[in-house]
């Protein structure tokens, strides 16, 4: 009975960066069901995760009391039953757990401030992300704080900051309704940003020309005018070849280039070396198809470019994004309605958490930690820092670097909130060994995650439908999240836990409500000008930048220049480079990891959602029929996947969308953790690992 609820609460979906607004229907303290609301990014639509992925909050595995590791607990490892953590932990009061957590961190701080690092979360609110980075910087005096943006779009942001001057999207994805051509590359949007994909499909249905480029034959290809299934890792070769055609056939926008860009001559010269005929074999696509796609994009009246982690998660991810930026600039496709660069953000609040400074090289609003004036301004806002008058000017370590630093003995304690590196890091056995080595690990989460299994103290936190806070989606839309139900048992809202811990570390915080944290953020973040808590409560969403208290925000930015010196964007040429490891006789296939529609990242929430887990209950990988035949494996049979890092056994599916001699594996399943296999080699600029290319051996299990 859909009328059978006592209360409806307007909030935002906790899964992907689309940021669909929804309504929780609540009865007797439980969410009964969910409906889409008319938010700016979703217009009442929801995907299967938004609609059915809410009951995890009522799951019996929820952490409801603080836990401290027992003195007689077995050695740290993935050896705890989430249904029965008391084999390894004992229950504690909040007072005792917070004291214990703070004491261990303070002892390490007293030895050397940089012994402690923090991972915050893109699944919490903006206010929580802000507080978390503030705790590390103010409380420990350095910048060793990061979150999963490092595994997501760090390379895209590096390229955008370098060449455009801003890390956020230049246009909302909804702007596609004003475009007549769009390139979607390295993104399986139908599964990963499903509601955004509905806009892409409608665009094609109206006659818009979609160019879908991906090593997998992704579903959006069915709607495409051009479908380019290029070889894994050949992004730069393909994009340089397309740009070569645009230069050769003089399809570029000379006026735009002259007015708004720099380094064009060098770019033009560079592109001479990449004719499609020379790149065709590298890309695995006939030269004429590359030429045709280039012409379609360049001849469009208004074009947009969307990309996902197929572009960013490479050791040359920043180069890939540089090419996309150059393609948009040379065709004059930034700053007008229906144009723009749009990296589709993964987590619901990865944009907001990055904006809030939850990254090791930037304070809020991407203000560099190396600038003394900027640091001084934040020290002033915070009322001082633990270590004296300033905090470190040195950029902090990133996610993967922190794990290496633990092994090297340079990091000995961590505070991890809402992240699960024991599942999400590349070469995850290396990360798990690092977590086991920590002298003091504080984990704040809603479940006993694989990471929490390594903790010394666990602080039970709140799920998204249990908290008040703002989130920022892929469109730069700041939206208001509201609590539908209280946290279970003694679990608390994360901002309260961070505040309590900060005060036990000697900081003097006194927040009474997230709106007070938001007000403090506004003092250091120009992006939030004209966006107030009251507006968000009344309007539900405001896009930044907002030019006045009445302005709903700018869907398209940079129409009159870029936030770089001279107001010009830059062409940065990129060369074709190999992946970090290439297939050979021992490891002859290519492994690509990713998500699937029903499960979210490391599976912590969606594998505890009854409908989603019923639809996709089993660890799996996908291969082309020819690959399965070659291996003598029937669809549904088990295979062993082995890389230079380790092995997993997993059920094999037949999927014609996967290229021959390639294996696709989702990373949500702990029983066959894809990241046991992945390569931790990093892009030198964004420090993102190469999740999208590893050499793998496949055998019948
Ligand atoms: Fe949630 Fe993303 Fe699905 Fe929207 S598209 S309902 S934000 S998972």
TrEMBL record:
For molecular function, the Gene Ontology terms on record are:
4 iron, 4 sulfur cluster binding; formate dehydrogenase (NAD+) activity; metal ion binding; molybdopterin cofactor binding; NADH dehydrogenase activity
GO biological-process terms attached to the record: formate metabolic process; respiratory electron transport chain
**Keywords on record:** 4Fe-4S, Iron, Iron-sulfur, Metal-binding, Oxidoreductase, Repeat
In what residue span(s) does the 4Fe-4S Mo/W bis-MGD-type domain sit? Answer: 6-61
- Write out the similarity annotation: In the C-terminal section; belongs to the prokaryotic molybdopterin-containing oxidoreductase family.
Which GO CC annotations does the UniProt entry carry?
A: membrane; oxidoreductase complex
Counting on the full-length protein, the chain here runs from 224 to 924 of 925
In its UniProt entry, the species of origin is given as Jhaorihella thermophila
**Chain segments annotated as transmembrane:** none
Q: What is this protein called?
A: Formate dehydrogenase major subunit
């Amino acid at each position: 009975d859909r009328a059978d609820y006592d209360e409806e609460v307007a909030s935002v979906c906790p899964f992907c960066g689309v940021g669909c607004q929804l309504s929780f229907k609540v009865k007797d303290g439980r969410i009964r069901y969910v409906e889409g609301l008319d938010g700016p990014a979703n217009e009442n639509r929801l995907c299967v995760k938004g609609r059915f992925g809410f009951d995890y909050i009522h799951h019996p595995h929820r952490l409801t009391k603080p836990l401290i590791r027992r003195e007689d607990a077995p050695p740290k490892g993935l050896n705890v039953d989430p249904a029965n953590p008391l084999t390894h932990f004992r229950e504690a009061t909040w007072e005792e757990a917070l004291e214990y957590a703070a004491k261990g961190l303070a002892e390490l701080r007293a030895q050397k401030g940089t012994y402690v690092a923090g991972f915050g979360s893109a699944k919490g609110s903006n206010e929580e992300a802000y507080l978390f980075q503030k705790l590390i910087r103010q409380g420990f005096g350095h910048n060793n704080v990061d979150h999963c943006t490092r595994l997501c779009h760090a390379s895209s942001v590096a390229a955008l900051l370098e060449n455009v001057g801003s890390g956020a999207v230049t246009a909302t994805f909804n702007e596609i309704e004003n475009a007549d051509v769009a390139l979607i590359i390295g993104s399986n949007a139908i599964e990963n940003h499903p509601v955004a994909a509905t806009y892409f499909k409608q665009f094609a249905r109206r006659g818009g020309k979609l160019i879908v480029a991906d090593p997998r034959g992704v579903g959006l290809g069915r709607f495409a005018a051009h479908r380019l299934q290029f070889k894994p890792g050949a992004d730069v070769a393909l994009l340089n070849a397309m740009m070569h055609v645009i230069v050769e056939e003089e399809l570029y926008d000379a006026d735009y280039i002259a007015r708004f860009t720099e380094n064009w001559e060098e770019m033009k010269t560079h592109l001479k070396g990449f004719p499609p005929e020379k790149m065709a074999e590298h890309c695995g696509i006939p030269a004429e198809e590359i030429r045709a796609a280039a012409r379609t994009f360049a001849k469009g009246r208004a074009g947009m470019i969307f990309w996902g982690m197929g572009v960013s998660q490479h050791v040359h991810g920043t180069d890939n994004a540089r090419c996309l930026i150059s393609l948009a600039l040379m065709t004059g496709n930034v700053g007008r309605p229906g144009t723009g660069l749009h990296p589709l953000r993964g987590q619901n609040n990865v944009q907001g958490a990055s904006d809030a400074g939850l990254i090791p090289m930037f304070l809020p609003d991407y203000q560099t930690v190396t600038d003394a004036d900027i640091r001084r301004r934040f020290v002033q806002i915070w009322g001082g820092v633990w270590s004296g008058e300033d905090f470190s000017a040195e950029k902090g370590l990133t996610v993967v670097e922190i794990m290496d630093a633990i092994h090297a003995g340079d990091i000995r304690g961590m505070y991890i909130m809402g992240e699960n590196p024991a599942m999400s890091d590349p070469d995850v056995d290396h990360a798990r060994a690092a977590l086991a080595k920590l002298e003091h690990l504080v984990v704040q989460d809603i479940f006993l995650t694989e990471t929490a299994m390594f903790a010394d103290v666990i602080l039970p936190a709140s799920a998204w439908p249990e908290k008040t806070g703002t989130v920022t989606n892929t469109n730069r839309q700041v939206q208001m999240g509201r609590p539908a139900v209280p946290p279970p048992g003694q679990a608390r809202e994360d901002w309260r836990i961070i505040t309590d811990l900060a005060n036990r570390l000697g900081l003097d915080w006194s927040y009474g409500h997230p709106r007070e944290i938001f007000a403090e953020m506004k003092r250091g973040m120009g992006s939030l000008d004209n966006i107030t808590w009251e507006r968000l409560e009344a309007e539900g969403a405001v896009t930044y930048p907002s030019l006045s208290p009445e302005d709903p925000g700018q869907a398209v930015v940079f129409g009159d220049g870029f936030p770089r010196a001279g107001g010009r964007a830059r062409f940065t040429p990129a060369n074709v480079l190999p992946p970090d490891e290439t297939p050979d006789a021992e490891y002859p296939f290519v492994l690509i990891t990713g998500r699937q529609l029903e499960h979210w990242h490391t599976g912590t929430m969606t594998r505890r959602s009854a409908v989603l887990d019923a639809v996709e209950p089993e660890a799996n990988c996908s291969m082309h029929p020819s690959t399965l035949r070659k291996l003598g494996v029937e669809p549904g049979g088990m295979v062993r996947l082995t890389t230079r890092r380790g092995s997993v056994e997993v059920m094999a599916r037949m999927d014609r969308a996967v290229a021959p001699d390639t294996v696709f594996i989702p990373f949500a399943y702990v029983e066959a953790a894809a990241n046991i296999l992945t390569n931790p080699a990093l892009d030198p600029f964004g420090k993102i690992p190469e999740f999208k290319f590893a050499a793998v051996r496949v055998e019948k299990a």
